[in-house]
Write a structure and sequence with these properties.
The protein has nine helices and eight strands. It is an alpha/beta fold and 212 residues long. It has a five-stranded parallel sheet. Helix 4 runs parallel beside helix 5 and helix 6 crosses helix 7. The structure holds BIS(adenosine)-5'-pentaphosphate.
Length: 212
């Protein structure tokens, strides 16, 4: 099954994606992770997008659609789980075209709803593994050893864009440019909305219940 995880920054897309990937064997594709990897590797793409990521603005649709074309085409029968893409109506239309060419469909959209205040609290406490990208939170989802990833032993760091002023900008961008995608797909693709402010395990259970 092909799924899109949708929600504001910090709504738990990455957290739930990891669980859905493990349970359903889906290929987790996060545009944010791909872009941060390009920045870390100092590739041409990374150098072009570095300052955009740090500012909380969106990378252009052309760059994102070119990046995603091959990534989605390379996924086999296991199906994909998109996290952070599409992020504008232009990207959604581009994705629709790519999927039509590949004879693939979006199985469902999983929407995580979280209030703005909760997002700010979450993102300012988030820590991410530099190695396997697993996310933790300094209060509600703490690693067993401070600063060390439970999963792979990697170092946990704060993302450059998880600073208060950048978080606010990312939320504004989400409301203006990303939320309208829901209207693009409403009535066209099955859409399931969840209270993303429930505890992590509870959110996972609710998603699994609906997807079964
Ligand atoms: P991206 O990496 O996609 O970031 P995002 O959408 O802002 O989402 P986050 O990764 O911040 O949050 P999340 O929803 O995954 O939450 P998480 O699970 O980590 O994008 C970054 C940047 O890249 C963009 O700003 C843009 O510049 C660029 N970009 C990416 N894609 C693009 C595209 N398609 N087009 C253009 N530009 C693009 O959880 C957050 C925290 O909360 C964690 O600490 C976690 O432990 C905790 N938490 C999770 N669930 C719960 C829960 N239920 N209860 C309590 N705490 C929880």
């Amino acid at each position: 099954m092909n799924l899109i995880l949708f929600g504001p920054p910090g709504s738990g897309k990455g957290t739930q994606a990891e669980r859905l990937r493990e349970k359903r064997g889906l290929r987790h594709i996060s545009t944010g992770d791909l872009l941060r990897e390009a920045v870390a590797n100092e590739s041409d793409l990374g150098n072009r997008v570095k300052s955009i990521l740090a500012s909380g603005q969106l990378v252009s649709d052309d760059i994102i659609l070119a990046l995603m074309r091959d990534v989605i085409a390379a996924v086999g029968e296991e199906g994909w789980l998109l996290d952070g893409f599409p992020r504008t109506v232009g990207q959604a239309k581009g994705l629709d075209t790519q999927l039509a060419e590949l004879k693939q469909k979006i199985g469902a959209i999983v929407v995580l709803n979280v209030r703005r205040e909760a997002v700010i609290e979450r993102l300012s406490g988030r820590r991410t593994c530099t190695n396997c990208k697993t996310v933790f939170h300094v209060k509600v989802n703490r690693p067993r050893v401070e600063g060390v990833c439970d999963r792979c032993g990697g170092k946990l760091v704060q993302r450059d864009d998880d600073r208060p002023e950048t978080i606010a900008r990312r939320l504004d961008v989400y409301e203006a440019q990303t939320q309208p995608i829901l209207e693009h797909y409403r009535g066209v693709v099955p859409m399931h909305e969840f209270d993303g402010e429930q505890p992590v395990d509870e959110v996972t259970r609710s998603i699994e219940h609906v997807l079964q």
